[in-house]
């Protein structure tokens, strides 16, 4: 059902791994931006954060996006947003233009095409920067690994758990691991939370 819906609306559905926010980087970046804005406007106890949502959302949509180099508001409605400090005439005149819809569609198409070009440029730049500093370990079924501890609360908490053994591979970077001493404990993980263990040969 979901596959058919995605096909009808032209969406590619990607599965993500739990506790791996990098899989959905755009959403995580958006959440981080919104958190900072909401925190800046909320009271000291942060109890009125929901009251700030309309203002924060409007601010986000009326600001130039760092990747697309476009205003989200303009890409949605085909016009610039009216801000509270913009000068507005008391009398508003509405005129009928039979070609307005075609002009609007052409304008939105140009905005979308330029946004796509800017997105591709940013993706290539991010990839180059990431590849320079990236460690790319390879893992095989049967390898022993430790897993990075998630949600560390104190600086003295253990950083890695295990040992685990890789028992199944889904993709080049996604594995199923099984705890060596607790055989019923399985996890699906990405390679960036793994640390290889090298067995000592006597």
TrEMBL record:
A biological-process GO annotation: DNA integration
PROSITE patterns: INTEGRASE
Residues annotated as domain Integrase catalytic: 1-80
GO MF, one example: nucleic acid binding
PANTHER family according to UniProt: INTEGRASE CATALYTIC DOMAIN-CONTAINING PROTEIN (PTHR37984:SF15), PROTEIN CBG26694 (PTHR37984)
Protein name (Swiss-Prot/TrEMBL): Integrase catalytic domain-containing protein
Lineage: Eukaryota, Metazoa, Spiralia, Gnathifera, Rotifera
